[in-house]
Design brief:
It contains ten helices and 17 strands. The chain is of the alpha/beta class. The chain folds into two domains: 2-144 and 299-329, Medium-chain alcohol dehydrogenases, catalytic domain (Quinone Oxidoreductase, Chain A, domain 1, Alpha-Beta Complex); 149-278, 3-Layer(aba) Sandwich (Rossmann fold). The strands form four sheets. Strands 3, 4, 5, 8, 9, 16 and 17 form a seven-stranded mixed sheet that branches. Strands 12-11-10-13-14-15 form a six-stranded parallel sheet, sandwiched between helices. Strands 1-2 form a two-stranded antiparallel ribbon. Strand 14, helix 8 and strand 15 form a beta-alpha-beta unit.
Length: 330
């Protein structure tokens, strides 16, 4: 099979080459990958920002496909099923797994980081990571649920977002922002999308505004008050300004640091009784909720690349011209 592989860190070392089709254990499922989402974590993996295994390594955390083969003990799927993959490996035995927090498993890790990922024609994963999807979920959405959609869905639920709350989505045109806007709107919130991309209006935001005018926009939407919840996954370039958008007793949610680690001005946090909430990934239960209840989510796709162009696809994540998701058609 063909796969994107690197033997030493560095995006320039990523090559598409022939490798053996992975083995299928008795509790494993072999998936023929149809489409994969390209995310910052894939850049981090390929460029040496994370310790990975095995080596040589195949990146790719977010993908969807068709079941090709199942192990002898697998009962939840069958060949030819359309499926997506929960992107966290977990042991089902630690205290956090027992609480339903598989993404925090003490002995687990991320698919495509601690295991080979989905930037390949075939990938083998444990059957407990497999979720069947119906024909009315298109491949673009299927390849966006495991990371781009699940991450903000979990974050908004952890923030206990309520109907009529005002929520600011910083980076609303990014991979996770696209879905954060839609989820927040479905939850009944007043949504202020911070971005320069006007097409975000089509996702249901009540207001689309750049960061320079965000405070004015929040006050207008919230009747003179600042926001109940602010979601910022960008980090150092925006965090200080995002904090200024949070109202007294509000929450700021962080699940990424795309532009670098942010410095937290604790005096501002404590004086306004602000809650700082960090989240990562999401649970299997939440992934099932998305599959069942959000089949009509919109996916703004900027570009589709073939597997042979995987390096260009990853580099394009940081293009100033990017207008939505980057997908790999495997």
């Amino acid at each position: 099979m063909k796969a994107a592989v690197f033997s030493k860190p560095g995006l320039g070392n990523l090559r598409v080459t022939d490798v053996p089709v992975p083995n299928v254990g008795e509790s494993d499922v072999l998936i023929k990958v149809v489409m994969a989402g390209v995310n910052p974590i894939d850049y981090s993996v390929a460029s040496g920002g994370r310790n990975v295994r095995p080596m040589p390594h195949i990146p790719g955390t977010e993908f969807a496909g068709i079941v090709s083969e199942i192990g002898s003990a697998v009962e939840n799927v069958k060949p030819d099923d359309r499926v997506i993959v929960y992107p966290r490996l977990f042991d089902e035995a630690c205290d956090l797994c027992m609480e339903g927090k598989e993404m925090l498993c003490r002995n687990g890790g991320i698919v495509g980081v601690v295991s080979n990922g989905g930037f390949a024609e075939y990938v083998s994963v444990p059957s407990r990571n497999i979720f069947r999807i119906s024909d009315d979920i298109n491949w673009e959405l299927a390849a966006s649920i495991p990371v781009a959609a699940l991450t903000p869905y979990h974050a908004l639920k952890e923030a206990s977002l309520k109907k009529e709350d005002s929520v600011v989505i910083v980076g609303a045109s990014g991979n996770t922002g696209i879905f954060a806007v839609q989820f927040a709107k479905e939850m009944g919130a007043k949504v202020i999308a911070v971005t320069r991309k006007r097409w975000v209006n089509d996702l249901g935001a009540d207001l689309v505004v750049d960061m320079e005018h965000a405070q004015e926009g929040v006050r207008r939407i919230s009747q003179g008050r600042m926001a109940d919840v602010v979601m910022d996954s960008l980090g150092t370039q925006t965090f200080g300004k995002s904090l200024d958008l949070v109202g007294v007793g509000g929450k700021i949610v962080a699940f990424g640091s795309l532009t670098g680690e942010a410095t937290i001005p604790f005096s501002s946090v404590q004086s306004r009784h602000i809650s700082l909430l960090g989240t990562t990934g999401g649970t299997r239960k939440e992934m099932q909720e998305i599959i069942e209840n959000y089949k009509q989510l919109k996916v703004k796709v900027w570009k589709r690349y073939k597997l042979d162009s995987v390096r260009i696809a990853i580099e394009s994540l940081f293009s100033k011209e990017r207008e939505g998701r980057i997908l790999l058609e495997v």
